[in-house]
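Async update (no meeting this week)

Hi team, since we skipped the sync, here's where things stand on the single-chain job. The sequence we agreed to prioritize is pasted below, unchanged from the tracker. I ran it this morning and attached the output directly underneath so nobody has to dig for it. Comments welcome in thread, and please keep replies under the output.
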Amino acid sequence: MVDPKKQLKVLVSEGSSTSGREAITVLGLAGHHVEVCDPSRWCLARYSRFVRKYHQCPPLRSDPAGFLGFVERLLASRHFDVLLPTHEQGFLFARAAPRLTSHAGLALPDFDSYRAVHSKAGFSRLLDQLGLPQPPTRIVNSADQLREAVRFPSVVKTSVGTASRGIWFVRDAADLNRALYDLESAGDFAGEVLAQDLITGTVEKAQSVFCRGTLIGFHAYRQITAGVGGGEAIKESVSRPAIRAVLETIGAHLNWHGALSVDVIMPLDSTTPLLIDCNPRLVEPMNAHQSGTDLVDLLLRVSLGETPTLLPDGRAGVRTHLAMQALLGSASRDGTRRDLIRECGRIATGEGLYRGSSEELTPMRLDWLSAVPLAMTTALLLASPPIAASLARGGFGAHLLDRASIKEIESEDFLRDPPTRGPGSRAQLRTRPGRR
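Output:
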């Protein structure tokens, strides 16, 4: 592990995602100095005693150049040991790595490798190239092609999308028509769209950390209960050597450096894991931490230029939950106020599926400020359970990429312009204490 006596100064690239919020908890428990930049004043990270300073920054989604310039100036004006990308900021940072690594440690592969797995279509092509298992998949560029490609039941996905956005479960012609309407309305056929056979099985996720193409840390968990949008509300750690082997193959081929996570379906009628998505980052690391596998610490070490030895796998059977996701999921499934109150009771008393489970997103016993967003979410849902859908959509915000921002970052002249370009360049380094 990183020397526990040495406090590192870490800049977390966003504070709105569940992954970023959980990484902050792990960093804080280890005693590191944590600062966060995010365009939202009300992001999850604002409600943590572990955040020393919050920096309001330009939005990555609409102003990637302004966001990059902001981060560069912040790194230059305040010493940081590590810049930790916890979400799609890694796409931008990989593109501009030389500008950033002169100021702080940063663990990312080269931009071509990052781009190869960032899009769903690119990841599917990589799996085909490497002969790795995935559900039968067709990549299309028009509504007519999609109609021909879909086999019921299927999952339709936009190539660019995160946090379960841009996904439709298509079981019949009516579902397909709704998906086509949404895709055409949003102009999604300007990019690539995937039609993937829907496989019945258990959803699992695996996380890993690589050091120059060598896997040095791995963790896997399965979904016990889904939250809103298909994310995990309750999860349990598992041992998955087959998925580890698949990740080793991908990481070695791409000479991966840093964090890499995959989503997997374990079919009911087979022992072969099928890969369905890739996230070039560390997704929700608290279950791994609770299982004895500190992937955040490992990522810090790689960021600082160390070459760590392989980290042993953590314990299987460790159960954790995200209370906010559980409540949002209950409400989104037409839950009534009575259902929500019962769910709150089960979470509070550790009954049913929560028996032996610990909270990973808002751990109030470790971080009392995390009670604020949980209490606000609970109150809003009790006042109006149908609001769950709009609350979930609020998570797709200015800290994420879209097709336009990706195209801008990929353009040849993106790094030729001075980092002060764009509306965000006029924003001053506005900092606020982390505690409210």
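Quick observations from my side:
Confidence is low (pLDDT under 50) at residues 419-429.
DSSP finds 16 helices and 16 strands in the chain.
Reply here if anything looks off.
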